[in-house]
Amino acid sequence: MVAIAHTVAFEGVEARLVEVQCSISPGLPGFGIVGLPDKSVSEARERVRAAFAALSIALPSRRITVNMSPADLPKEGSHFDLPIALSVLAALEILPAEALAQVLSLGELALDGRLSPVAGALPAAMAAAEQGFDLLVPAACAAEGAWVGAASVFGPRTLRDAIDHLGDRAPLTPAQPGEAQGRDILEDLDEVKGQERARRAIEIAAAGRHHLLMVGPPGATKTMLARRIPGILPPLTPAEALETSTIHSVAGLLKNGGISRDAPFCQPHHTASMAAIVGGGRNAGPGQVSLAHNGVLFMDELPEFERRVIDALREPIETGEIHVARANAHIRYPARFLLIAAANPCRCGNLADAGQSCSRAPGCGADYMSRVSGPMMDRFDMRMEVPQISLEDMQLPGGGESSATVRNRVAAAREVQAQRFAKHPQARVNADASGRLLDEIAPLDAEGRELLNRAAQHFGMTPRGYHRILRAARTIADLDASSQIRAPHLAEALSFRLTFTRSD
How many angstroms separate the CA atoms of 76 and 67, rounded? Predict the structure, then answer.
């Protein structure tokens, strides 16, 4: 007799269905697991043996073979423990085989039979709903999986609870979704004194998801401005929240079964490795660009990052996804983020101050900024210089707009874009528009075409730069509640684009 349980293997954020087949046959006693398991899966047999012993379940002196199909799909992770244990129990006729026919399970076994939490309950629940299965996960993961309302999710605390539930001796109650988590916004935009132009830039960037580079001396509030961008972003839509939480679930970052509608904010250190930024490592997991999906990726001290790490951002900026290729895996992760970068004008940061700049000025600034390649620089929709704030300005009382006020304008612009792209599923904000769609949403009048053509000829603008200016101008018009792009909108977009064109 062959008993079958169902579980999933993760390929990025996709959960692929796996059959766990168990056969008990005459032969030398043994417990073998086949089907391309990694070390953590191969060790499952020892955890299953110990858990069975804790429940006083004796394994027969026969050959136990567990096959995980499809056999050419790599199996990684401890979440295979529970389906392996259930398939063995069904093969021993302790559980009825039909009880496993409509159940998808995952969970790690402790040696005493307890079920430990695992990553990936949310995408597993989505896979269960697609296949019409119930989901059986450790109790600590059940609230997370329950967000997918199309599947019944049950959360046993121990292997004994799972056996009693499947044997219909003590059925479990379906889990309820966890509490939606919110982030307390303690950093308000009204704390930033002066810097009206920079405040305007982050508002435009947030409204249309336009990548922004800020260059200025140390202490010019670049980081302060960037850290206040989450406070002016509107809440994620339900679809965006589910997308983002699925990535965080695979990474094991969801806590207490709750998902969040706050846009994520990721700030990797400039010493971060390629795998940390774009994804990879032993398990080809998601990197910072994917964890920031639908949110903000802030890269402070941009030229200090390795050049190959910076250039690796080109693909996700253009396509909205990142491909992680390894010898045994080729994984795709969503990576549609708002890139905010900050940099000093040179290594010492005092290039603009004649009294403090080094003897190598101005060549030191060109050398320092050349660490960011021209093609990468061209991918910033907006580039601006952030001046130092005088001590006199610092002593003035704050009087700028609050984050809540700016957030209302950003939300209104985002709503206009949501209606504009309702029939275009591949685009959500103005930064996503390209080709014929961009021509459709950003037509220019004669005055606007003449202005943009003169700017393109004078500054040697690339076609990519031309399109990014159009997108930014469209967002500025949306913030102005204008259906048409006017010359002032185009002029403002150009003013945020031309600062570093000559040094690209």
Answer: 14
Q: Is the Cβ–Cβ distance between 314 and 322 less than 8 Å?
A: no
Q: Which of 15, 9, 33 is closest to 23 using CA atoms?
A: 33
pLDDT digits (tens, 9 = 90+) for 213-225: 999 988 888 999 9
CA 453 to chain centre: 37
E strands in 12-143: 14-25, 30-34, 63-69, 103-105, 108-109, 115-116, 134-136
Give 98's DSSP letter. G
Contacts of 158 (CB under 8 A, 6+ apart): 113, 114, 115
The structure tokens listed for 377 are 């620089």
Q: d(Cα 115, Cα 80) in Å, to the nearest integer?
A: 12
Q: What is the DSSP letter of 136?
A: E
pTM over 0.85: yes
Residue 56's φ and ψ, nearest 5 degrees, are 60, 35
Q: DSSP characters for 286-300? A: --HHHHTTTSEEEES
Q: What pairs with residue 5 in β-bridges?
A: 20
